[in-house]
Amino acid sequence: MTFIVKMIKNGPSKDNPNPWAEYLMTTQDNHRIDTIPLGNGSFQFTCNNSVPCFTRCCHSADMMLYPYDIIRLKKNLGMTSEAFLVAHTTTAFRDNPYFPGVMLKMSDTQGRPCPFLTEKGCRVYPDRPYSCRAYPLEPAMSGDKAGGVTIEASVVRHTYCKGHGLGDEWTADQWMADQGMGGFNKQNAAWARVASVLYASNTFGPKGADNPAMNMAYMASYNMDTFRRFVFESSFLKRFAIPKKRLKRVKHDDVALLGLGFDWILHFLGGQGTLKEKG
C-alpha cells in the first residue's frame, strides 16, 4: 500500500476566495476498491487483533511522514531527529518536483513490515503517524488567508481490509477524536500552509535541489535538533526579533520550535508570517 501526500493548488472560488491549498492524504495501490466522500455521513469500521487482516496494512507501506509525525516518533524512540531520519526514513522527490518528501523506511525482511511492527502490534502506537491514525479515512485540508481550516474526509476501502462493516458506527469527527488526531490536525494545517509555498512552481529557482535555501527549509521542517542548533549557534537571533517567552519555549519544546521553523520558511520564501527582522 502506498500513502502519498498531495498538494493541490486551487484557484479562488465563491466559498474560498483566498485559498492557500488543499492538502490530501491519499493511498495509491492496486488493492483499492473505492473512495467514498463521507460528508456528514458515517461509516462502520474496526481495527484490532480480532480482525483477520490485522496489521496487513503495516506491510510494504510507502508512507510519507509529516513534520509533526517525526517529532512524535523520534521522541517515542528516544532518538535525535537526525538519527531518526537516517535510520527510519528515505527522502526523495515524488509527486511534487519542487521539494522532497520524507517516507517511512520499511524493513528488508519478508513482506517488508513496518520497522515498528511487533507480534503484538505497533510498538509506537501512542505516537503512530497521522496516516495510520486516519485510516480508513482520507482527510483533505483546505485553508484560507485568514487562517481558517476545513477538513473533508472520504472513506477508503481495500480488498485486503476486513474491518469495514464491523464494530461501531463513526462520523469523521468521532473517528478523528477517537484516534487522537486533534493535535496532528492542528500541526498539519500549519504545515499545509508552509507546503503551499514549498511546493509552488520554481520556489527555489533554476538551482532547485542545489539551492542552499532548500536544505535550510528541509532542516526547519524535519530536523528539529539541527534546526535548534542553527537558531542558537548561528546569527539567527541577531537577525530576528524573537520574544523571550517564545525563545524559552523553542529551546526545549520541539513543537514550539517547529512553529518557529514554519514562520521562518514563510518569511524567507514567501514574505509571509509573523517573524520580524531586527532594526
> Structurally, how many domains make up the residues?
2
Q: What oligomeric state do the depicted chains represent?
A: single chain
**Which structural class do the helices and strands define?**
alpha+beta
Contiguous low-pLDDT stretches (5 residues minimum) are: 1-28
Strand content: 15-25%
Global mean pLDDT: 86
Largest sheet: 6 strands, mixed
Which strand order spans the largest sheet, edge to edge or round the barrel?
3-11-10-2-1-5
What string, H for helix and E for strand, traces the elements in order? EEEEEHHEEEEHEEEHHHHHHH
Q: Judging from the principal axes of the Cα atoms, what is the shape?
A: globular
- End-to-end C-alpha gap: 51 Å
Helical content (DSSP H or I, runs of 4+): 25-40%
How many strand segments? Answer: 12
The value of Rg in angstroms is 19 Å
The tally of helices reads 10
Please describe what this structure looks like.
This protein has 279 residues and is of the alpha+beta class. The protein folds into two domains: 2-184, no CATH class; 197-270, no CATH class. Helices cover 35% and strands 23% of the residues. The chain has helices at residues 67-77, 81-88, 130-134, 172-178, 182-198, 212-222, 224-233, 236-239, 244-252, 254-270, and strands spanning 2-8, 19-27, 32-37, 43-45, 62-63, 89-92, 101-104, 117-118, 121-122, 137-144, 149-158, 164-170. Strands 3-11-10-2-1-5 form a six-stranded mixed sheet, covered by helices on one side. A two-stranded antiparallel sheet has the order 4-12. A two-stranded antiparallel ribbon has the order 6-7. A hairpin with a 4-residue loop joins strand 10 and strand 11. Helix 5 packs parallel to helix 10 and helix 6 runs antiparallel to helix 10 (254-270). The N and C termini lie far apart (51 Å).
